[in-house]
Amino acid sequence: MALDATAVLLAAGFAALVVAGGATALPRAVEQGDDAILLVVAAPWNGGAEAVVARAGGSVIGPERAMLAVLAHEANPEELRAAGAWAVVDWAGISFICGDGQG
After folding, report:
1. What is the pTM of this model?
2. How many structural domains comprise the chain?
3. Mode of pairing for the β-strands spanning 59-61 and 69-73
4. Which of 42, 61, 67, 82 is the Cys-Cys partner for 49 at CB 3.0 to 4.6 Å?
């Protein structure tokens, strides 16, 4: 699968963010049960985030998929990381990223 320049730049930018900012750049990922909804961020190659979720034994939820991330459940955060996830964010982190409507 050929990657376009945008995908490569987005992946490189995210990697630089993680390296430069460390844990403070990303919301805290909380270990929860396997029924939690998680945001899984992974490289777009080798099947992307969907493939990471499948390798970890979870399920992708929602009708939409982003280039670098999917929502998943029925997966353990540690197994997702072991399967190649760059980041695993819990519901509190998702709310932080998207805003919780509490102005």
Report:
1. 0.64
2. 1
3. antiparallel
4. 42
